[in-house]
Every structure is written in C-alpha cells, then in structure tokens.
Amino acid sequence: MVITKLMIKNTHSFPVEKFRNQFPIFNKKIYGKPLAFLDTAASSQKPQCVIDAVSKCYSENYSNIHRGIYYLSSNLTKQYEEVRNLIANFINAELPNEIIFTKSATEALNLIANVFSKEYLETGDEIITTYLEHHANIVPWQLQSPEKKIKLVVAELNEDSTLNTQDLLNKISNKTKLISITHMSNSLGHITDIKKICFEAKKRNIPVIVDGCQYIAHDKVDVQELGCDFYVFSGHKIYGPSGVGVLYGKKIWLDKLPPYQGGGDMIESVSFEKTTFAEIPQKYEAGTPPIAQVIGLGVAINYITSIGLESIKSYEKFLYNYAYEKMLNIPNINIIGHSDSKGAIISFTMNNAHPSDIATILDQEGVAIRTGHHCTQPLMKRLGIAQTARASFGLYNTIEDIDKLIISLGKVNNFFK
Fold first, then answer.
1. d(Cα 368, Cα 130) in Å, to the nearest integer?
2. Is 80 exceeded by the pLDDT of residue 7?
3. Is 57 a catalytic site residue?
4. Are strands 367-368 and 36-37 parallel, antiparallel or unpaired?
C-alpha cells in the first residue's frame, strides 16, 4: 500500500530506538515479555533526564523558594522561575507572568471556573462546551451552577464524531459568557479548530478557555496565534512529573480576576482587618508550590524541544496510520472516531469481547492499553456506547509495539470464538 511504504520510509528518519532507550521503564518485563506501553494519553512515561532532575532537586538543591535569602533557596528560586520563562517561550505567551503553576490541569480548570464564577458570571449566563470534553472541563462548571444557575450549552458532533464547529458558533448568543473546549479529545483524538473558534469569539468579546492536556506533547502550541484567553496542560502528559499543571492566562484577565486560594506567598500584606494580594503570578500560587515537579517539567520541555515537535507529530501520525490500517483487517473490530484531523489515539470496541476482557488478555502479552469511559461519559452516551478500549502512542512507541497489539487482538478473537 502506498501510504504504508511512504510512512515506513519516514520511520527510518526518526531514531525511535535511541529515544526509547532513554526511558528506563522499557527495561521492565511484564509477565516475562517486553512492555508495549500504549497508554500515553493517560500519562506518559518519563525519560531518565527528567527522573534525574527531580532526584537531583531533592538530593542536592532542595529548599523552599521565594522565602529565603540563603544560597539553596535563592538558587532554587532562580531555577523555578527559569522554568516559568521556558514555558512562556514554549507556548509563546506574551509575558512569563502569564504562566501559573498548579498541581494539575484539573486544578487549573477548577481555578478558572471558581474565579470566573465569582467575578464574571451571573444567573442565566451560558458557557459553550462540547461533547468531546473530559470531565475536568464539565464538572468544575457544574459545581458553580447551584449558586449562579449557569447553563452549559453543548456543541454537537459531525457524523465522524469530530466537533461541528459551525454548530458551536451558531450557539453563541447574548447570554454566552465563555467558551471552554478541548484542543484534542482524550477519548478519540480529534483535534479542534481552536484558531477559528477564538477568532469568532473575539469578535463578540467572549473569552475562550482551552484544555490542551492531550495536544501539548504532540504539536506546537502558540497561544498568541491561537488567540485563546486561557490554556491549560499537565506535566505528566508531556513526559514530565505528575503533580504539576500549567495555566496560561492573558494578563488582562489574571490581573482583574480574584485569587483562587489564600495563604503564603500570594499576599502583599495581611492584617486581621484586611489583606492585599501580590501581583501575578504569585496571586494564584498560594502555599509551597510543586517545586521539584516544576524543575522536572522544565527538563521534559527541553527534552521534547530538542527532539522537535514536528518530528514527534510526524512519527506519531505514522504510528496511527500503521495501526489503523492493520486494525481494519481484524475481525470484530469497530474503530470509534477515525478522522483526518486527529492525534495518535485509537479507540475501539470488539463485537465479541468486553473492553475490560480485551485489556486483560492484552496485559498478559505485555501490551498496556486503557479501557473505560476515559472520563468522557457524556461523549460515550452521545455515541451510544458505554466504553471503549483505547490505544495511544508516544514518541517511544515502535512498529513492534503495534504489531504486538495486532497479534494480541487476534488472540482476543481466538479466545472468544
């Protein structure tokens, strides 16, 4: 097949074995078999450089930051703030102060929902979202609804389960105060046309929040080019540590919205009568931050930048195409949500096996996939299914990993004859 031949040629230009050898997890055997890790959409594995950076922070450099004038504290404060500058450059934020560190992308979305609802949303206001959203971009808004009675307006899908962008734009009304959408579906891998949505929203002075967790590790993000007002992502899905997330917000919004939490480091002065708050970003970083995790995240970003996001994207697209073509030939397979504009995620069901049974049999072969509703129950309901099996790829995956997946799916068919 022409596609396969072209893509195999591309494989040789991406030194996957070199990068794979930098991830110590792949020295591990599962039931005596090499690990084929196909669950990067849930959380990526970590290269040795990230592991070493976190270890070094704790063993050689650790102290609390922003508080001490002694060497350890001032040195680690400098490293921590350098990561803020690095991330600002990585996503092309206008200012480093527009980068807020949180414990996760989920916390970042809860932060925005909380402060917007306090200051900006009123009863009857509407927030436009989509069927492709993770629960973390649904539930935080619902938590604000009992008090403010905010309505979530959901944009429809096309027949191929991609977002119907025109339907989203048609649903903008004078009650619309926010648009909160995913950049890439964690369940199906579909990529949203964020730039077009932001362009239309800006005409109506409607801020746009983007959940970039799935997209950030697979392609270049330029928040100024996209035109979004907020962009969130997590460290653990971009080959960095767990326990750290990033919230980008335009300065104009971060300056005027209220703090999310109170505590140390986010204040200017405190008395029992009144508290005044620090400038951004400290205003949103109450308490001791995830110091070692931020340091590790900085190393992870340097790592993927050194490889090149375009190269990663191209290679992962090859992996997806290879897996898709192979899976089409397997009996009983139903691929959910194929499209031309998607990341390296394949969700599927089998006519003769429950997703949990599929994953159990694959696990015995050393193949790790994810099953369930993937924290997208409204999407599953919209598609008329309860759950899927999901294989997702990262820069360390190989053709051999996919071949193991294909062979193992054949064993599922044999088991459930």
1. 29
2. no
3. no
4. parallel
